[in-house]
Amino acid sequence: MDGRSVGAEGRGVVVAPRERLAGLLGGAKTAGAFSARLEAPAASLNLEVAGVGPVRLPLRAPQAKRLISVSRPALFGKGEETLDDTSVRDTWQISPDQLSLGDPSWSSLLSDALEHFRDALGLPAATRLWAEPHAMLVYGKGQFFLPHQDSEKDDAMVGTLVLSLPSAHTGGELVIEHAGQKCAYRASKTDLTLVAFYADCRHEVTPVRSGYRVTLTFNLMAAPGTSTELSGPPAELAHSLEQHFGSPVTPRYGSRESDPPNRLVYLLDHEYTQRGLSWERLKGADAGRAALLRAAAEQAGCESVLALAEVKETWDAYPEGDDPWDDYGYDDEDDGEGGDAGADGDYVLQELVDDEITLGWWTGPDGTGGEQISLRVDDYEVCASTASADLTPYDSQYEGYMGNYGNTLDRWYRRAAVVVWPRERAFAARGEAGSGWALEKLRVGIARGDLHRARERALSLAPFWKHTRPQRELLGCALQVAAGLEAAETAAMLLEPFQASALGPECAGALSAAAERYGTAWTRRVVEVWFASAHRLDSQHYQWTERLPELCTALRARRAPAVARLLADGVWAAVDRDLRLWTTTGSGDIRRAQLRQLALPLRCVLAAADAEQRDGIAAALREYRDTVLECLMPMLRSAEEALPAAEWGAAGLDVIARDCADRLRVVCERAPRAADDWSVAWTGCGCELCGALGAFLGSRSRRVLEWPLAKEGRRHVHTGIDSAELPVFHQTRRQGRPYTLVLTKTEDLFTRERTVRRQAAADLAWLMPPRNG
Question: Residue 73: beta bridge partners?
């Protein structure tokens, strides 16, 4: 992936076409650096500051102190926050509205300087640069700014321009880093010093040791030109592309060759924002390399887009100064917890263990527009002229030795990329990103009557479509496409990745149309896939069932009652499965919480079901243990708020309410436990130990059992008692061999029964007429 094996042909090593391509681009003549410097006479600048007046150059200490008197502490951005922390940034700031730079000599100087920086930074000759004032900064003795990266404050922003005023000071160097290289710039004592650099470069201001460092900072903006000059022949690159897309590949962790790749992802060196990503605004070497690759793609019959990539690399690593072979890096004092790696220079990288590259955004082929995507790319699809390890990560995390893993350093990078695919595979290549682009293109094609092409395009998605996870909002469009294709198998394939939770009343029209076209058997198969184990409902997805009654009503209004019935059956099957699980297992608190969560989908499926289905649900509920009341009573109480009592019959709630009342009467009429009855009803797994425990629990008079038992036996008994929340205290007496497990029945046996009886009486009183009919 990182292009490090390029040039190995001379040593008899086979080089993949993508690696050869990365080497060609890396060796292409690309003008430009990540930063550049220019000096100019101090007389070229006439500067005034509100509250101070004209600033005389070179700057002296008295005037620097007057500048500080009209300034404020400088803030800095961290993520979405703006912070004031002098341990990170310690300097004084004057806002641009306090500055006056209107002298003609300054305008002439700036114009010439921008042309110089355009060429020095490697931007296309047609690019127009301009500089927008950002701030004046005053650094006194000891003040500094730790390494950081500027945010691109505008779509057109490509970099930062720093103008240092001449002054006698030491320290305060501007240090800029990119791709493993560093440049340190000192300000002149007599002349203006201008430094320009790309916005994604990390940089810092070292502490001022004496005097004052005063600068003007500008946002460096770029307007694209109308042409891009190529700096090298694309023919060899085009040949490498053709080989890449025509050669079978072997995945890194595979042993068999697979089909040729569908795409090439060439990682660029700089970072970009979504809004600032375009062919005309690429920075430095990226501009020339991308132009060459784009031209080669055209020549090879390919299409190319720009993308933003998230790169994660995991390295074998150890802290500098540690011996990796000393007890495998293990330190008795190290708890093995991961920590912030801080500066990556503190760690020695060894072997690359793994990497993950995900594309999160890409443009259209013309570089305009953009689309949020989520596409993980394979290692055999990726190359780069500059290895990620040679760039500065935006985050890193070290994991110390943990006994059987660890001593690894995770590093995260943000990089742009050029993504290339053969034009004949363009539809599938874009569709694999899991976005709505493919579905919308199919919908438009069907609407235009180009049914044959729409079917071909839809079929091209089949190899990967079922593994995508499209946004739930796309189901309506997918249903329209499925109905319009008039191809049953292809239509079912397009709907397969969706989940039942994506359904809503707005889907009724398209769903009924698809069901009418392909029939009940087809619809049943599609719905079963939506409710299959891979897409099964769980407690956190049940919220969507609030829309189920309205959806089923809409389907029946469109003469699709069979579809409504299939959906209600699917939801009930999921609820029934979870009810059977949680009424028979789990500790009390966990069980009650899970059963309460099932109250909503149960009420909704009853409201969505037809009369026959409701009768079947009510019959099934009667077969459950009494613990089902922990679901049914919350369900009935919530129904009181949603439905008038007169409508309970139509919703099937009156039958369930009567069954609950019958169960509760049995509990209330049950004779209280005798004061000397210590028996506990319980059945275990059927083993000999559970049989002995069950005999003790079933005894009316026996409260204590002293049981010599080996460790594994004690653990099994502990687990049985705790999982069933039995009113038994267990303690191990560590004397003799084996130790003795002492079991003691507790007063909770009586307390729990009284609590259950009180709750049953309260629930029964609430269920009395008119609710129980």
Answer: 92
Please name the helix (run of DSSP H) or strand (run of DSSP E) that holds residue 288, with its range, or none.
helix 284-299
Do the Cβ atoms of 191 and 42 come closer than 8 Å? yes
pLDDT recorded at residue 492: 96
Rounded Cα distance between 40 and 464, Å, is 59
Are the C-beta atoms of 50 and 70 separated by less than 8 Å? yes
DSSP secondary structure string for all residues of 573-629: HHHHHHHHHHTTSS-HHHHHHHHHHTHHHHHHHHHHS-HHHHHHHHHHHHTS-GGGH
pLDDT at 2: 42
237 three-state secondary structure: helix
- With 0-12 / 13-18 / 19 or more C-beta atoms within 10 angstroms meaning exposed / middle / buried, residue 574 is buried
**Alpha carbon 502 to its chain's center:** 20
- Which residues lie below 8 Å from residue 31, measured CB to CB, with a gap of 6+? 119, 122, 231, 288
Q: Which helix (H) or strand (E) holds 294?
A: helix 284-299
The residues, ordered by sequence, that sit 6+ positions from 346 with a Cβ below 8 Å of its Cβ are 319, 320
Q: Between helices 508-518 and 488-495, what is the axis angle to 10°? A: 150
Closest by CA position to 159, among listed 169, 167, 149: 149
Q: Do 524 and 573 form a contact (C-beta atoms < 8 A)?
A: no
Nearest-CA neighbor of 449 among 415, 399, 414, 486?
486
Question: What pLDDT does 123 receive?
Answer: 79
Residues near 367 by beta carbon (within 8 Å), at least 6 away in sequence: 277, 278, 279, 280, 305, 306
Please provide the size of the chain in residues: 773
Please list, in sequence order, all residues whose beta carbon lies within 8 angstroms of the beta carbon of residue 514, skipping any fewer than 6 positions away.
479, 482, 483, 491, 495, 523, 526
pLDDT for the residue 7: 37
Write the single-letter amino acid at 674: A
Asked if 194 and 259 touch (Cβ cutoff 8 Å), the reply is no
Q: Measure the CA–CA gap between 307 and 361, rounded to whole angstroms.
A: 5
* Residue pointed to by tokens 């760690």: 347
Asked if residue 675 lies in contact with residue 700, where contact means CB atoms within 8 angstroms, the answer is no
Among candidate residues 515, 589, 510, 503, the one with its CA nearest the CA of residue 551: 503
pTM > 0.85: yes or no: no
**Is there a contact between 259 and 314 (Cβ–Cβ < 8 Å)?**
no
Per-residue pLDDT, 715: 92
Radius of gyration of the chain (CA): 36
Strand ranges of the sheet holding 53-55, from the earlier edge strand across to the other edge = 53-55, 47-49, 99-100
Neighbours of 427 (CB within 10 A): 20
Amino acid in the structure at residue 500: A
**Spans of the chain, pLDDT less than 50:** 1-13, 226-232, 325, 327-344, 539, 772-773
Integer Cα distance of 215 and 612 in angstroms: 81
561-582 vs 611-622: helix crossing angle, rounded to 10: 10
Q: Which two three-digit tokens encode residue 217?
A: 């900072």
Phi, psi of 166 (to 5 degrees): -65, 130
For 447, other C-beta atoms within 10 Å of its C-beta total 11
Q: In 3-state terms, the chain is what percent helix, strand and coil (to 5)? A: 45, 25, 35
Rounded Cα distance, 617 and 604, in Å: 12
> What integer pLDDT is reported at residue 588 of this predicted model?
76
Q: Nearest-5° angle of CA 514, CA 516, CA 521?
A: 85
Contacts of 495 (CB under 8 A, 6+ apart): 475, 478, 479, 482, 514, 526, 529, 530
How many angstroms separate the CA atoms of 204 and 213, rounded?
14
Q: Helices 437-447 and 451-460, interaxial angle, to 10°?
A: 160
How far apart, in whole angstroms, are the C-alpha atoms of residue 2 and residue 222?
Answer: 30
Distance CA 604, CA 550 (A): 10
